[in-house]
Design brief:
It is built from 16 helices and 21 strands. It is α/β, with parallel strands linked by helices.
Length: 649
């Protein structure tokens, strides 16, 4: 291996073995909560994270609202009502199990966060008197002010609070270490997880992580269709290193996935195709329900579900007549607007009505507290907005009492994207599981963005803690099993191969090639011939380009491993697309050779897994989990009796 100038110790070839009862892969919100749940039950826990846990993961820089807290004392809805609304809104291509867990336990996890030191209430009275504030509790609510189940929070305080709690519970924290492969063994004729392999991204040291139970809590895939080698620091909500390594290693190990054929047109991009998230005026999510005006300063009115113009800002936050509640934060149930007016800015409709470009968010026309909570708490606490948006715009003179902020593109996007520029966004595909969040391999559990139809931070926290409980139950029934040394050696050879190539191709070139291949062969419109051509091309990359990859140091090697995982995930997506022989509006899936939309025979989940290099298909009815409330109670009576009695039932 050639010498290089690198500030850390060279430990290539060294191996460290660690043992624990519960192993958690990924140190984001889900992983931290999983580790905390297991540690609270007295288990030895190892948490592995590629970055620094205090700020790692998609929520490391913060978030502005918590989805969902149905059992908080102000809530007017039940967990079952909201979980079923999610399922219906997503046309049953939804994760009923995980959504019910989120709705039932989300408030519990928020109270945990407060106990850890995260800020969840307006304790200083900054918003006293605001319509969205409950004066008895200090809670701030978002979107639906009547039903009060979405909560505004100071999310930038959450990851440091979790980090402190992990340290207090003496969880073994293995930072700056990427998890790269699951270890499995055959025990009594059945395959089970026995740990994982990782690599220190500063020294190159190999880590063998033995465990009775493993919980996968890593990020969903990114950089699949969209990548710019000159602008790798630009990102959507997720950090550049959150690219779906858990999906790739799970697929290699034989885990079962579903909905991997779903992809949406790009919204936020790591490829320099958009403005910073929430840095352009709009009225979606973080900016909801900002007053919007056109180029003449003419206000674009909000209308209710029945087409009635809403005359006040307050009315924008209330359900329409006869409508019990409505969902926000990425999804809408029983849409409040008959035409998708300022809520989502349906461009053609606005042009027909005579509005003139460009459009602006005009916070000066809103009540003081509404303006202040958008430009201050929401824009400021949402991921990557505190410094890039709130601080920088303010320092450069932006005053929401005087100035408007232009809205670019159509819809709530911050740029216009081509149809072939896709993303795994908005409840995408992921690991298939049962009511214990257990995968098809015993001893391996999943939570957060690893799950199919994953949602936001409340979803990650709730499913993470839940998976931690279930993994503990399993760990009580098994013994540590020695992993296969040959399997470890094969992974070691795979990981280190690029560092020994003195000359060759860098990871950026391969990432760019994969993205272009996915745009060309798995874009907006798909067919068997295109998809198969794409698979053939990616296979040629594996055979011809991967052996040429070259690295200079462990960080470069980590980036190379990420792109190898992107390549694996891309093949899985193409194979999943080949399996669905129909088009599907809910899955944003259009085929030219099978244009029919959702025929009865395809009204189900298609699962995909890999076995000895072969793609194995499965078919599961949408409602395989049964009644969500009954299923939850059947599997969690101990939690409901001992820990989950907070709030209303």
């Amino acid at each position: 291996m050639s010498q290089y100038d690198w500030p850390y110790k060279d430990e290539f070839g060294a191996v460290e073995t660690m043992e624990s009862e519960v192993l958690v892969l990924g140190g984001g919100i889900a992983g931290c909560y999983a580790a905390i749940a297991a540690a609270r039950r007295g288990k030895s826990v190892t948490l592995v994270e590629k970055g620094a846990i205090v700020r790692s993961g998609s929520a490391g820089s913060g978030f502005d609202h918590w989805e969902v807290a149905c059992t908080n004392p102000c809530s007017q809805v039940t967990p079952k009502e909201i979980a079923e609304a999610y399922i219906e809104e997503q046309d049953h291509y939804s994760n009923g199990i995980a959504h019910y867990i989120e709705c039932r336990e989300g408030y519990d996890r928020l109270l945990d966060m407060e106990a850890f030191g995260g800020k969840v209430r307006d304790t200083e009275g900054e918003f006293k008197g605001a319509e969205f504030r409950d004066d008895d509790t200090g809670f701030l609510f978002a979107y639906d002010y009547k039903n009060k189940f979405f909560m505004r929070v100071w999310g930038s305080t959450f990851k440091p609070a979790l980090y402190r709690e992990l340290k207090r519970l003496k969880v073994r924290l293995v930072e700056r270490t990427e998890a790269t492969a699951l270890l499995t063994a055959w025990v009594n004729g059945k395959k089970r997880g026995v740990g994982a392999v990782g690599m220190n991204v500063r020294t190159g040291k190999l880590c063998v992580l033995k465990a009775k139970a493993t919980i996968m809590t890593m990020s969903r895939p990114a950089r699949v269709w969209l990548f710019n080698p000159d602008l790798v620091g630009l990102c959507e909500f997720r950090p550049p290193q959150s690219i779906g390594s858990g999906h790739a290693m799970g697929y290699r190990a034989g885990l079962e996935f579903t909905m991997m054929e779903k992809s949406v047109r790009g919204e936020f991009s790591a490829a320099g195709r958009s403005f910073p998230p929430y840095g352009a005026g709009n009225n979606h999510n973080t900016w909801y329900a900002a007053t919007m005006v056109d180029a003449r300063g003419v206000e674009i009115p909000y209308v209710d579900r029945d087409g009635n113009v809403l005359k006040t800002v307050s009315e924008r936050y209330q359900p329409a007549s006869g409508q019990k509640f409505f969902l926000k934060g990425g999804v809408i149930d029983e849409a409040k607007y008959d035409w998708r007016g300022p809520e989502t800015m349906e461009f053609d409709e606005l042009m027909k009505r005579g509005y003139q470009l460009p459009f602006y968010a005009d916070l000066s026309k809103m009540p003081e507290m509404e303006r202040k909570v958008i430009w201050g708490l929401m824009v400021g606490e949402e991921g990557k907005t505190k410094i890039p948006i709130l601080q920088n715009y303010t320092e450069r003179g932006f005053d929401p009492e005087k100035h408007m902020l232009q809205s670019y593109g159509s819809g709530w996007q911050s740029a216009s994207f081509l149809d072939q520029e896709r993303q795994l966004f908005g409840a995408p595909g992921g690991i298939f599981h049962d009511w214990d969040l257990k995968t098809n391999i015993d001893g391996i559990y999943a939570a957060g963005d690893q799950l199919f139809a994953a949602d936001c931070c409340g979803f990650a926290a709730s499913t993470g803690y839940y998976a931690g409980r279930k993994a503990c139950d399993y760990a009580d029934t098994v013994q540590l099993t020695e992993p296969d040394r040959e399997e470890i050696q094969r992974e070691r050879n795979r990981l280190y191969a690029p560092i020994y190539n003195k000359e060759g191709m860098g990871w950026k070139e391969l990432n760019m090639a994969i993205s272009k291949a996915m745009q060309n062969y798995c874009g907006g419109v798909k067919c068997d011939d295109l998809l198969q051509e794409g698979l053939n091309l990616l296979d040629s990359y594996s055979e011809e380009i991967v052996p040429q990859l070259s690295c200079r140091n462990p960080h470069d090697l980590m980036r190379t491993h990420e792109v190898l995982d992107i390549l694996e995930v891309s093949k899985m997506i193409l194979n999943a697309c080949l399996l669905r022989k129909s088009s599907s509006k809910p899955l944003c899936f259009q085929r030219s050779d099978y244009p029919e939309t959702d025929p009865q025979r395809d009204d189900h989940f298609i699962t995909i897994r890999q076995e000895e290099g072969r793609v194995i298909r499965g078919d599961v009815p949408h409602g395989y989990y049964g009644d969500v409330e009954e299923g939850y109670l059947e599997h969690n009576r101990d939690y409901v009796q001992n820990e989950g009695g907070r709030g209303n039932e």
